[in-house]
Amino acid sequence: MLPCVTECHDSGFRFPIVLARSMIAQLIPIDGSPPITLNRSLTIVGRKADLCDLILENASVSKLHCAVAKTDGLLFIRDLGSTNGTKVNGQKVTRGALLPGDELSFANVRFRVHLGPSPESGSQNTGEILESLEIPPSDDDGSGELVGVDSETGLPFLSDDLE
């Protein structure tokens, strides 16, 4: 989760430093089985125990089915060429971002996505501001040449090399 700008002065920015407490990412099985907490930054999902972090013992799930990446409080998925596909809210995807409450399916094994405080805690207080961090103004005039766009994020690549 990116912090909000709380102050802007002299072209510098002040950001709060936030400590997240009780922030978890879970896959909650639709069939009522216990939730699966995603503790790793990258979780490989599939049937093959020696290759996967999350093993789903279901014949419709591929040996290497999907990768789930956790970063900055967000979850991203990438299908690994599975036979029966990965779906988000019923739509087959090759990659994408997950939102709280999304339904994620590996073949016919379905989960509800939970991001935030533990469902058992019921706590809405997920972080506290520790201090502010000042980002000093840059001597850079902000000019640059657009050299491309990242196909995954849609963010521009800029070059400050204008020779």
Could you explain how this protein is built, in words?
With 163 residues, the chain is mostly beta strands. It has strands at 7-9, 12-20, 23-29, 36-37, 42-46, 54-55, 66-71, 74-79, 86-88, 91-93, 95-98, 103-106, 109-117, 127-135, 145-149, 156-159. The protein has a domain at 23-117: Tumour Suppressor Smad4 (Sandwich). The protein contains no helices and 16 strands. The strands form four sheets. A six-stranded antiparallel beta sheet has the order 4-3-13-12-9-10, with no helix packed on it. Strands 6-5-7-8-11 form a five-stranded mixed beta sheet, with no helix packed on it. The protein starts with 6 loop residues before the first strand and ends with a strand. The model is unreliable at 1-22 and 123-131 (pLDDT under 50).
Shape: globular
Q: Which band does the percent of strand residues land in?
A: over 45%
Order of helical and strand elements: EEEEEEEEEEEEEEEE
- Which structural class do the helices and strands define? mainly beta
Q: What oligomeric state is this?
A: single chain
Please give the share of residues in helix: under 10%
CATH architecture of one domain: Sandwich
User: Rg to the nearest angstrom?
Assistant: 20 Å
Largest sheet: spatial strand order: 4-3-13-12-9-10
> Main beta sheet: strand number and arrangement?
6 strands, antiparallel
Round the mean pLDDT to the nearest integer and report it. 76
> According to CATH, what is the class of one domain?
Mainly Beta
Distance between the termini: 37 Å
InterPro entries: Cell_Proc_Reg/RNA_Proc, FHA_dom, SMAD_FHA_dom_sf
Protein name: Glycogen accumulation regulator GarA
